[in-house]
Amino acid sequence: MNAQRIESGTPEGEALGFVESLYSGWLELREDHRLYLHFIISRNKNGGNTQALIRQWLAKGYDVRVVMPRPIMQHILNKLHFVPAVESLPEWYDEIVECWRRPKAWLLPVSPEEEAGAGNGKTFPGTADGCRG
């Protein structure tokens, strides 16, 4: 699988909204439209920039994964209905790592019936812990 390491402030990072004026860090982009955020520091704490960036990636159809998020990032990910999982990323880490992601059911096209059920407290299929939307 082809993976590309992208740092904030590079032309590739800028194209993804990972601009150096707002962030420091690095991510990995894979050819299957999967984006792994390995490390991020927001230069404007509590400005909502990190949450907006992740929402932007999701809106563009990326399968966003966040590797070993710290508690403040976990708080953001919970708001976005991410769930903890584990993955093997041998090109970067020797051991299996915690990697938060959206439930698989949310990565698939949604039927009008499922869309209508969103936000009504219904449990979404495919969630690891039955978290509610």
Q: Can you offer a commentary on this structure?
A:
This protein has 133 residues and is an alpha+beta fold. The protein has a single domain (3-102), classed as Aminopeptidase. It contains five helices and six strands. The chain has helices at residues 11-15, 49-59, 71-79, 104-107, 112-117, and strands at 3-7, 23-30, 34-42, 63-67, 86-87, 97-101. It has a six-stranded mixed sheet with strand order 1-2-3-4-6-5, with helices on one face. The radius of gyration is 15 Å and the shape is globular. The model is unreliable at 117-133 (pLDDT under 50).
Describe what is shown at a glance.
This protein has 133 residues and is α+β, with helices and mostly antiparallel strands.
